[in-house]
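Re: duplicated header lines in exported structure tokens

Our pipeline writes sequence and tokens for each protein into one text file. With two proteins the header for the second block appears twice in some exports. Here is an export where it did not happen, for reference. First protein block:
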Amino acid sequence: MARLFLAALAFVLASPSSAETITGQASVVDGDTLEIHGQRIRLIGVDAPESDQLCRGDNSLQYRCGAKAANELARFIAGRPVSCKSVDVDRYRRVVAICSVGGRDIGEWMVRVGLAFDWPRYSKGTYAGAQKEAEREERGVWVGSHVAPWNYRACRRDGGRPKGCSDDASGLD
């Protein structure tokens, strides 16, 4: 019993508090995950295409939209310090946070340029306006066809292959 208590106490003390701010040079793990000082940080309220996910551009050719999201995010950050205010910790023990660079909300920027989606399940519509603008202006994934990342992951969990889960021939989400 004492070991269980000590293990639980160690976990609580090692977990970031809900108001902690983590600042530093960030490396991009994928289009919605950063790492600062060895801590994985998940951008709150957005979902970017998975690393192996494919989308179709305006020319109907497939491209690696997940890789593009990560690369464009790295270009946007450009080695500048990133500040993340933690909100929660997810089931993978990543800090879930609102992150900014140069005073700009990274999640909002990702959605506005069409590299990520407002994830209503977690955003409560925070980035819905930015997504509508990206869709209207045909930015990023909105220029062609795509599958929302949460639907892509569900397809993969059900045994689908990346190529089969990525292509949305109808162009609808």
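Second protein block, exported in the same file:
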Amino acid sequence: MEFKNTKSIFTQIGDDVKDKIMEGEYAEEGKIPSTRELAGIVGVNPNTTIKAYAVLQQEGIIYTQRGKGYFVSQGAKATIVKNKQAEFLNEVLPETVDQALKLGITFDELQNYLKDLYHEEK
């Protein structure tokens, strides 16, 4: 895993776990790697993954079963999607529109570009 300087490492690890849940790599009610296993996979101190898992537990994304490990919570995918949509609509999109306005990109130009991107994805 390559880390960026824009967010803390434990946040990036948590985001990666969320992405894997959204993509179906980690199934709801399914077991996920232990903090030690994940630390070895991503090459960080186990305390960093412990902190990431603690945040995910507080958000209700994962839970622990004593002696068995960590599991993905029922409804975690829907919660993640809802939160990411809100973040996109309330933070990312307004910044994008602000930048487009500063660059003199018109609404029609932006709309046409978005249409092209959506057609490429289909």
